[in-house]
Design a protein that fits this description.
589 residues; 18 helices; 3 domains; 27% strand; de novo design (two linked rop proteins); Jelly Rolls; ten-stranded antiparallel sheet; EreA/ChaN-like  fold
Length: 589
Amino acid sequence: MKNFIFFSLFLAFFISNIQAQVFLNLDFENYSSLGNAKGWYQAGEGYKVSVDTAVFFTGKSSLCIQKNAEGDFGVASIGIKTEDAKGKSLRYTGYIKTEAVTTGFAGLWWRVDGKNGILNFDNMQNRGVKGTTGWQKYSIELKIDENPENIVFGVLLAGDGKAWFDNLQIELDGKVYEQIPPKVFSLTGEQRNWLQSNVRMFNSADPKQDNSDLHFLKKMVGNAKIVSLGEGTHGTSEFFKMKHRMTKFLAEECGFTVFAIEANMPEAKAVNDYILYGKGIAKEALAGLYFWTWSTQEVLDMIEWMREFNRSKKGRIEFWGFDMQTPDIAAANVLNFLARYDSTNVQQVKSNYDSVLAYYATQKKSNIKPDKKLYEPVLNYAAEVLSIMENKEKSFKEYVDKDTVDWAIQNARIVVQCITNKIPGSASRDESMAVNTGWILNHSGADAKIVLWAHNGHVAKSNFQTGSMGFFLDKKYGKEMVVFGFGFFEGKYTAVGKNGINNYSTSLPQPGSFEWILHNAGKEQLIIDLRKFTNSPFAWLVQDYIGFRSIGATPVDEAFYPTKIAQDFDAIVYFEKTEPTACFRKRKD
């Protein structure tokens, strides 16, 4: 059972990286038409997590978690800003009512993460609520660490039965943590007129269109050497097509020479070999990136365009990945290099990597809760290999070309990054992706300019608890980077949920959300430069939070989270209506 609880909390921790909550909705009185508590991430295969308006302790509703199919846990989670709670004494309370919880338990939970792991954690596992009980008050008390990177908390049901939760409350150093209700407002005539005058329209997302309607992008991008393209879901066709179209424009009109996607760095080399040299089969190379999110007709079309662009001699573009979530190919690349150029270290490195890969494979398949202490020796094995490679870099370059040596060392670094990222409580992935992006730029020539493709939560520039990739890149490159977020008003998208990899829908934007504002421009698709907000009727959005949709690889019905949008992004690409991606792995119903 422990492994499922841990997994749910880890998932909540990941989601909280893109949720700097202001209004926590602790009494669950704010909910969508689909019955989802606003602001809360709700999950659990085999469980229904929803607001119940028939059973409640106070107000007019509670949150209910009920097992209704095969599964192991149901969970709801939300996060708070670390600066509000660091170093303080916490008392987290809530009322719980249960029905027929005969296996497992219901409970509150709280988790604080540091840079290198979990700092504080309590999920009531040793005192959870069981059986059938009336409303009772329960609490978690702990001292929050002085240097938290991430704080996330919530409610859970592990096992069978049904549980209700209501009237949650947070006290920090004995003072109730006050709520700030979200703003509800109507657009003024001045705001509406300014919006309609300042949005930039384009004809369509179709990458086969010519560039005539996108020339305004030259001014938006300016002299940037990095253009980051986000996405509000991992499965929206218009987002993918438009990112293809913008990449095409940047390569043809602005001299961009490199493209990099949120995919494993070593595995992406097969796609690059196809694009540059015609090696292999494009669709097979694409499948080698592992993630179903990129295994789509839209991405394949972009790869084929890149191949033709290079063949045309009108320019050159390369294809890279900057992620680091699996170590297998990277480790094999290091061993192949040493087998060819340094046989004296092959056996030691092979022994180290055998231990790393064996433990990694075991943890992927195991139902055992990951243990930070077990990862530490594995990380040491990986770090030792990187040290060997770095220490011999100078001697390697005496008889091996620089690019080959640098690539081998980078693969050793990828293995270290991967294992570091897998340590329980680690939040290193975005920082590693930023490091890898810098490596790609540094090794692509002095005049290189790069287009990045990732989720909005990764390209955003703000420091949400642990820091996004965009945050780390912004610190290093500043105005040399321009970030485009992507949003939509209504539509379906591809995600993996109860119906497998399939089409899913989500709620419409509520009044006061950013997509609702753009909807009032009355355009089918548009781009708005958020840097213009400083001297506009929307100047308050430079500092204040506003709801903005964020859906990852799993479906979410109520998916709007407070963000300082004009700090996160330089511009937003918006579509009124969208369709799911043409995913090759989508389940056929």
